[in-house]
Structures are given as C-alpha cells and as structure tokens.
Structures
1.
Amino acid sequence: MAQQTPPTPPTTPPPEGGGGHLVWLAAVLSLVCAGVGQIYNGQTVKGIVLIAVYVVGWTLTSILSAICIGVLFIPFMMAIDVAAIVDAVLIAQKVAAGKQVGDWEFF
C-alpha cells in the first residue's frame, strides 16, 4: 500500500507592488533617527546624508547650548526631523504601491 502525502495548501503570492512594504515602519524608523526610514525605503545614500546632518546638527546644538546659542538650532533640527518623517511615509506609500522612486526623490 502506497503512502499518500497530504496535499500542500496553495501559496498566496505577495501583494502587487511593494510586496509587504510597511509604511508605519518607515515612519517609526524616521522618528527614531532621521534617515533610517529613507534607508528602509531603499534610498540609502539619501538616508546616510540625513543621518549625518541629524548627528552633526544635534551635536552642534548641544555644544552651542553651553553659550546659549544652541537654542537657535532647535527649531531647525525639529523641522528636519518632521520633514524626514513625512518624507519617509510618503515615499513608503509609493514603494508599497509598487511605484518606482528615485534615489533622491523627496515627498
């Protein structure tokens, strides 16, 4: 008597386009550090540049706070943070929809 193997369930193909690219994850990563969401979205060079600007900017803000000038950098740095988060979300939506994005494409 031959042994019968149970039928294997059909596999579900990934969704069209981004193949499960998570928009919320891009937002959270950019919230943690500007540029990381961009790297997740496949914009590696843009992400590295944003991380460098983020680190240098907040370092200068901290150093210059000792002479009370650093507070002037805080709104600028916060604007970079917000712009990086918005950019990561909008680009992640394009990637998830299967659209091709450029290496330096913003918003």
Note: Residues 9-17 have pLDDT under 50 and may be disordered.
2.
Amino acid sequence: MTGGQPPVISSVHFECSNDTLLVVAGGTWINLLAGTLFFLLGRLTSPNYPRWKYFFSIAMATNLYAGTGYFLFSGISGIGAWATFIQDGADLLISTVFPA
C-alpha cells in the first residue's frame, strides 16, 4: 500500500522501510477502528445472543485499550510511533502553511 518492505516482523513489532505518517500511525488507527466496529456490532446484536454480545464487548475493550493506551503513552512521553507522527505532522503542517 505504501511501497515499503518489511525488514522486521514479529508477533508484537513491525518495522517498515517506508516510514510515512500512514505507516507510523497505522497500528493505533486500526485498533481504534476495530474497537469502534466491535462496539457497533455489539449494539446491533440482539439480547437473544449473549455470547456474541460478550465476544464483541471483549474484542471492543481489547482494541480500545491497546489503541488509546499506546496513543497516550507515546504521545505524552514523546517516545515511539506517535511522537514521530506528531513531530513529522507538525513539520508537514509548518512547511505547508509557510512554504520556503
């Protein structure tokens, strides 16, 4: 999708040779999107299916916990992917508003 090659892949870490803003923020955005999707699916599920409601609530909680937790940790502490995203996004915004 971005044209990069994955030099490092593991069960908890992915590194891409093409670190665009999409790649840097992708994991957190997918977690937040999946959490929202599971929330909506849980709301649409009939009370006659409590196992599905339980599954959707656990899946929602897991994804929202991971997405918001990493976003807050990385964004506030200034380390990790969101620190890079904020720095590169600010540089992009400044260069767009005030072209050299």
Note: The chain has a mean pLDDT of 80.
3.
Amino acid sequence: MADTREMTLPVLPLRNGVVFPHMVVTLRIETEEGITAVAAAEQSDGLMLLVPKVNGKYSSVGTVAQIQDAEGGNLVVEGLARAEARLVHVRGLRAGRKSSTLGGSDANS
C-alpha cells in the first residue's frame, strides 16, 4: 500500500530536467528562490520538493528529495518519492508547497 501523507516542504524549482525517485543528482543553486529553499530544508530535516517549472508555471507533480550534501552552490539530492504539489506560502517563504506522496518511493506507481 502506498505511503500517503500531507507534508509542507520547501520547493526547489527545476528549470532544466526532472528528478525521479532513486536518482542521485547534483544541482547548481544560483537563484534566490533556490537558495531560500535549500536554507529552509537544511534547518529542518533536509527534505524538499523538487518541482519542474516550465514557462513560469510549476508542475502539479514533483519529487520529494533528501539533501545529501550542499557546498559552494552545489546541492546533491536523492529522490525519495513522487509527490502531488499544491502551492502554499509558509512563513513568508515563496518556496513553500504542500505535498502528498503518490505511491511511496515506487516510481512506477
């Protein structure tokens, strides 16, 4: 059975590409929005929501990811689970989104 729950996570918009569960990738963090999202994730449990952003619009589905390493503007993350995302603002952070996992960590669910 799928692990479905609602969580509030910082959002890191992906302008080029998609990250799926079980992928480990290095991302370059250069925008203020990205820097804010990473800082918020590091202050909690290191979880964030990676969401494709195309033509200024966020996708409705992303990937919950765990920060593995963050140094010098580079971020190494591991995709954990797909997620449905709904935009919300949390404590003034533009990067706040609410998500519930879709099918746990199985990318084919």
Note: Strands lie at 6-14, 24-28, 47-54, 57-58, 61-71, 74-87, 96-101.
